[in-house]
Amino acid sequence: MNRQHYSYTHYANRQVAEGFDSLRFSGPIGELLSETQERLLLDTIAPLSEAPTPGRPCAGVRVLDVGTGTGRAAIGLARAGASVVGVDASAEMLDVARTRAAAMIDVPMDVTFDVGDAHALPFPSEHFDVAVSLRVLMHTPDWRRCVGELCRVSKQRVIVDFPSLTSAAALESVARHGRRAFGAKVESYRVMSERSVRAAFVAQGFRIMHVHRQFVLPIAAHKAIESRGFTEKLERAFAAVGLLWLVGSPVTVVAER
User: Fold this and answer.
1) CATH number at residue 16
2) Is residue 1 part of a domain?
3) Domain housing 80
């Protein structure tokens, strides 16, 4: 892979790494994003546990978190009892993840963090029960190759998300690419169609078992308003008339072997 691609260089920065959680998950909308993500992961992974206990619904499930970043998803799953390995191309992001994990001494956790590239995962085939990769396909140079690697190392399920081609995120993506072309230091990203993602999983022998769409309005718009109650009421209204299914984003898909 081209290590000069922005998906590598942008996150190989200590300031970006240390400010990532605050930028993405601060405030009431950030908390809503985090809670929704954690609930979806637990609902998908907990049924695979053969020995769940109160407070540890994912006990014994082996999970690989690809593009773990600051480790939010990995740590949440480890606290729920899963055995988790988090990999990321950015050593700076992993430093933050390790610091966060070390600070959480109230619950025993089985979680480790290592440098790794989503395009060539250093694990045997079907080594994990589940592979998770959030906010990665939208940035990575070769997303289909990454899907292939996620499917290769997972014995049962793969969970990924992406901004939808049919959502307002498509307009923001175009704007960011334009600004970047003129020299602005912005984090650009791709938008993707559910059809293309579904086809990539089918090609690997997986089927899509669940699709979740979160917002009709862009996350940035909700963050500008910063009212969780208003966001939840507005998005419920959009869902009631079918807009969420048509143009909702980000899209999270759960695929099963």
Assistant:
1) 3.40.50.150
2) no
3) 6-256
202: CB partners within 8 A, 6+ apart? none
> Are the CB atoms for 98 and 163 separated by under 8 Å?
no
Rounded Cα gap, residues 215 and 222, in angstroms? 9
d(CA 63, CA 81): 11
Helices (DSSP H) in 104-213: which residue ranges? 143-153, 169-181, 194-203
Bridge partners for 9 per DSSP: none
- Tens of pLDDT, residues 120-166: 999 999 999 999 999 999 999 999 999 999 999 999 999 999 999 99
> What is the C-alpha separation between 162 and 251, in angstroms, rounded?
5
Res 228: pLDDT: 95
The closest alpha carbon to 142, from 172, 166, 118, belongs to 118
Whole-angstrom distance between the N-terminal and C-terminal Cα of the chain? 27
Which DSSP symbol is given to 242? T
DSSP state of 186: -
Provide the greatest CA pair distance for the chain: 55
Cβ pair 164, 250 in contact under 8 A: yes
Contact 131, 154 (CB under 8 A): yes
CA distance 189 to 171: 11
How many separate domains does the chain show? Answer: 1
Predicted TM-score (pTM) of this structure? 0.93
Q: What's the CA gap between 139 and 186, in Å, rounded?
A: 12
**Matching residue, tokens 């089927």:** 207
ω into residue 122 within 30 of 0, thus cis? Answer: no
